[in-house]
Fold each of these.
Amino acid sequence: STQSTWGFFTGAPQPKAVPEKNFMPVTASTVVGGIIALVVICAFPAGIHTIPEGHVGVYWRGGALLQATSTPGWNMMLPYVTSYSAVQVTLQTDKVTNIPCGTSGGVMVYFDRIEVVNQLRASDVYETIKNYTVDYDRTWIFDKIHHEINQFCSSHTLQEVYIDKFDSIDERMVKALQSDCDKWAPGIRIVAVRLTKPRIPDTIRKNYENMEIEKTTLMIATNHQLVVEKEAETSRKKAIIDAQRIAAVGQISLEQDIMEKESVQKGARIGDEIHLHRQKIVADAKYYKARKETEADLLRLTPEFRELTSLMALNNTRVFFGSKMPNIALGNSFDGSFGHSSP
């Protein structure tokens, strides 16, 4: 308090009071724990890793493959102790280049590139990686392609490899690869095989080119011949069609003329039939009239009518008397003495 009073009057700064501190004793366990915590904090980011989409994460610890796998996304592992690898399980294309092979005739040819489209099933990743490592495609794609191509070339001629059976090589490769994969690595699926035309010696290639030129020339000539034949066939068919058309027109005209004549003939026949019918009716009428008149005359021709008629006929008759008289026939109704002169 005296120092405070003196400082108040003199203007000198007052000394600060130093608080008392309680220090904890540092032990070995505390130091080790701190070091471990520091190491964990520093190593924690190293244990975080990502698996890309379309892949499966596989892990090794101390060189041994772990059975556990991980899916795409963020994942954790023990840093510096566990290692990992992302294995693709979507479609992938392995390109095998510069593949030499010898044909059955001893000619060396080279396939510049063969592409194999394949896929590893996610459920078979562990077994496949365990048996053939992450480079499984080296065993079952790259090395196998070399083997199968050489097997194919050694049993076929250059003509078959380069021309005749080239279009079937891809199918043969797919079947051969898939057959062995089904037997030894069932998780691998071979989707397709694509390959380029093999390289052959230049001298042989020129011969093939010349042969192709000759084939092309022959094909052009053959096609030209076919075109000419087709045109001639077309002209012949056109002439036949024209002739058939003219014949059909003539036939139609003839049929039309015949139909017209038949119509005229039919009309004339109908007219004749009408005239004949009319004449028949007239004749029948005359016949009927004559018949009726005859019947009427027969009905009137009685003895009395005959005598009356005879008398009427003699009404204006002259009678001659003398030694010579002409004979006058007066009919059966008279007795013969009438009109005769006496001897």
Note: Residues 7 and 14 are 6 Å apart (CA to CA).
Amino acid sequence: MTATETTTSLTEFYVGVALACGSSLFIGASFVFKKKGLLNLSVRAGDGGYGYLKEPMWWAGLLLMASGEAANFTAYAFAPASLVTPLGALSVIVAALLASYFLKERLNLIGKVGCSLCVVGSTVIVIHSPEEQQVTTMAELAQKLIDPGFIVYVCLVAIVSLVMIFYYAPKMGQQNVLIYIIICSVVGSLSVMGCKAIGLAIVQTIHGQNQFVNWLTYFFIVQLTVCICIQMIYLNKALDTFNTSVVTPIYYVFFTTFVIIASAILYKEWGNMDVKDVLGNLCGFLTVVGGIFLLNAFRDMNISWRDISSATKKTTDTSEPSESHNETHQLLENDREDRLFGHSSASNSISRGSI
């Protein structure tokens, strides 16, 4: 590799990193902007209202999210996926910080630990997940789309989404954040596949092979539009019903996981995984499960570092009287032994004097 090629490669790498970081900033901020707009509604999105379409703050959040997704999509053209995808975890931190400042939402200490575990676990999953095969033409992609494994996955996504939307969401959506998040995530995994297909069509068109005469391109445009609309509806319901600091990390974890699963099935790279990658995926998954449990099980508890410090201090204070009591008891024991041995020595002296 020449010096010019090395410089170009480094430039592209840094451009990819900048785009990925900017994407996380935009997406993290979009959660807070949309939540701010939803709070101004008289009929809540969680109750089926669509008044947020008239809220400028909500539209600002939508534009931020669109910009972030566009930047994230472009970043994959410049930097490795193993770098770009984990950087998406920064959106969780951005959303949590902005929510605490602008929305006055508080996340307790256990929630922060759970959030950290979610980010770490999902990052481990991404690092150890197989890389996608390179698909350079729409014809190659069309062949992969009719693979039985991917068709089964699409059918499962459709069934799970319909059951969640029409059965579980009306009954449990207001009590369990996972209902709305699962809908967004499984549908979102297909929207990412649509984004990749449209990006491929644009690249081929730029290189002189017009793909906008290909019916498959328009199929993906319609599919992407439908998937994004479903994602936006149920993501708004989740944000309107639950704390932003809880929705953001859980959505990130589930969305990233289902995107990895969809990509792995479509591009068939799991057969080439090493044992260490399999173990890495299992460890990452278990870490994510632990983080989600902490986020949900203890989110209503008011626990902070101050509470832990106070509890530690109380433990120390209660242990001091015990230590004092032990010292007093030891002194009494020593005094009793001295008296006993003293009496015994006196008796021995008398006995010797008698003799």
Note: Residues 343-355 have pLDDT under 50 and may be disordered.
